[in-house]
Design brief:
heterodimer, A: 238 residues, four-stranded mixed beta sheet, 4 strands, elongated, B: 326 residues, alpha+beta, Alpha-Beta Plaits, 2 domains, three-stranded antiparallel beta sheet, 8 helices, 15% strand, electron transport (chain B)
């Protein structure tokens, strides 16, 4: 048993530092869902995505061309859009490298997705107990990841200033069509992501202060919560 | 004195001496990029056209020089790679280019030296204008001229993708698109384009589109009488006709003239991108945003209950106990 005790004390030491995936005894009970690194990473990605959708929409539909004013005019918008895309690409994939394993689909996701009516109805008690991510969150994760790859690849082909001669004009036409379709898709994923975070009350603090309430973790990600409690990743009482 | 001549009839004569009102202003626009509701002009200018008779061209490049001179551009001095085409391609500083092709006629086994003056075709249905996202950066006047308005250009290069003839070029200096203007600044005051004025053999002629078609008929009849059975006028219907036309001695195969498209049209990909995608995409995004707002206002939020907070608390206490027992 001594080895387990050692293990637990190591976990407690980690918990002390306010590390991710630890329970704070409270009361009230809180859970650290995201460390500061991931939160900074998330917000750089989020701000980039918002700036990209504003500058991109300005060039997508004439009725939204006025959005170029936010960036200092059409020329500035055209210049800055791809550079923000580069920032987003790297920022997102640093996040991706840390989160992809937890977002691999499993059996619970199939069950969860098949009971989507209960999800929307807020009948959490009928759904399987879940780990750190549910199938909806995983869908957003993989949707963002794949669309960002499509967008960066087609975006580079359409980047006239540096890559105007990289591919042929017929290829660039396809690239722009795919780029705009992928952009529409990622905006839909973005809307879903933001709205899910708002609708599921208590979620946003995970990305601001890094913590959620114990009840939030118990309700939405019970397997994750039980796992932390079971492994003794609990902050000692103050 | 009232002006009776709205469009110049020739490039050869000197400019008119009678006072002439400048035309080709905002009130003569029939199309304006990224603008849905453009009031149609009160007057219709006589459509103009440039006719390039490749069979009369001697390849002297006077048209290129005149173009550089009039537009005050400075094409980079390049390197001779053993072909007559010089510079190697159109650029933001070279709006027109004589392209030289050596073609062996399979019927006669004769080498034919084909020279085509490349440049903007001034399509009736311009792909560049269709693709342009910036309001007023590309305009079309009622006389048929398609012009780039540089102060509105954002340098995105969509016009390059929209054009079926691969004509527009983006300047690396000021990041704006450039191409032949059909000398709109000369035409507006009653003069023909600089290239046509400079052409020593009158292989390039300019006038109303109707006159140019008539002139072409005479040239085609002449070519046919000399054994060019397939001589004809290149005024491609796929782009609604053009305001720069060619007389080709082999009009059945335009591609032999340095890849002049046989049946140019705005690419279906561009049509989809600037058609269905643009409108359906905006609608879908708008509906999604509106839908979530409505759901947010009227549907019940997913809240954590007090009971669940207690259960979490109990789970933590329970875990503590287990640890103590261990």
């Amino acid at each position: 048993m001594s080895s387990l005790t050692d293990n637990t004390s190591a976990n407690v030491a980690a918990a002390k530092a306010g590390a991710e995936d630890t329970i704070r005894r409270g009361p009230p009970v809180e859970v650290v869902r995201y460390g500061v690194g991931k939160r900074i990473n998330h917000w750089i990605t989020a701000i980039s995505l918002i700036l990209l959708l504003l500058s991109g929409l300005a060039m997508f539909h004439p009725s939204l061309f006025f959005l170029t004013e936010l960036f200092g005019g059409g020329q500035m918008t055209r210049w800055i859009h791809p550079w923000i895309g580069i920032v987003l690409f790297f920022s997102f994939f640093i996040l991706f490298a840390q989160l992809w394993k937890l977002n691999l689909p499993n059996r619970d996701d199939v069950k969860w997705a098949s009971q989507i009516g209960d999800v929307i109805g807020g009948h959490e008690e009928r759904l399987p107990e879940l780990g750190k991510y549910n199938a909806g969150q995983k869908f957003i994760f993989w949707g963002m990841a794949s669309l960002i790859i499509v967008l960066i690849a087609t975006g580079i082909m359409a980047w006239e200033q540096y890559f105007g001669l990289l591919t042929s004009i017929p290829t660039q036409r396809i690239a722009l069509l795919v780029h705009s379709l992928a952009a529409v898709a990622i905006i839909l994923v973005f809307i879903l992501h933001v709205y899910a975070a708002i609708w599921t009350r208590g979620t946003i603090s995970a990305m601001t202060r890094g913590t959620v309430t114990g009840g939030w973790a118990w309700r939405h990600h019970r397997k994750w919560f039980k796992d932390m409690a079971g492994r003794g990743r609990i902050d000692p009482a103050e | 004195m009232a002006n009776t001549m709205d469009s110049p009839r020739t490039a050869v004569s000197n400019p008119p001496v009678q006072p002439m009102e400048t035309n080709l202003t905002q009130r003569d626009l029939i199309r304006r990029s990224a603008t849905s509701e453009l009031p149609q002009p009160e007057r219709q200018l006589t459509p103009v056209a440039k006719l390039i008779d490749v069979s009369k061209c001697i390849g002297c490049k006077a048209c290129q020089s005149a173009c550089v001179e009039w537009n005050d551009t400075n094409p980079e001095i390049g390197e001779n790679v053993g072909v007559y085409t010089n510079p190697h391609d159109l650029s933001a500083d070279m709006f027109t280019l004589m392209r030289f092709s050596e073609w062996i006629n399979p019927e006669t086994d004769n080498l034919e030296w084909l020279i085509r003056k490349d440049g903007c075709m001034h399509c009736a249905d311009p792909g560049c204008l269709k693709a342009c996202p910036s309001p007023g950066a590309i305009v079309q006047y009622s006389n048929g001229i398609v012009d780039f308005v540089h102060e509105n250009c954002i340098g995105c290069g969509y016009c390059v993708k929209g054009c079926p003839f691969n004509i527009p070029r983006i300047s690396k200096t000021d990041h704006r698109a450039y191409k032949c203007t059909l000398c709109s600044d000369r035409v507006a005051v009653g003069q023909g384009p600089a290239c046509a004025k400079a052409c020593p053999t009158q292989a390039i002629v300019f006038g109303t589109k109707e006159d140019m078609k008539k002139h072409a008929e005479g040239r085609i009849a002449d070519l046919k009488s000399r054994g060019y059975a397939n001589a004809g006028l290149y005024d491609p219907p796929g782009v609604g006709g053009t305001h720069v036309m060619y007389v080709l001695h082999h009009n059945d195969k335009p591609h032999i003239y340095a890849d002049l498209p046989d049946n140019p049209a705005i690419s279906a990909v561009v049509q989809t991108w600037k058609g269905a995608t643009k409108y359906a995409g905006l609608a879908v995004m708008g509906l999604a945003a509106a839908g979530t707002i409505l759901h947010g206002l009227f549907a019940k939020a997913n809240r954590v209950s007090k009971h669940e907070e207690q259960e979490a608390q109990e789970a933590v206490d329970h875990a503590d106990k287990r640890e103590e027992n261990a």
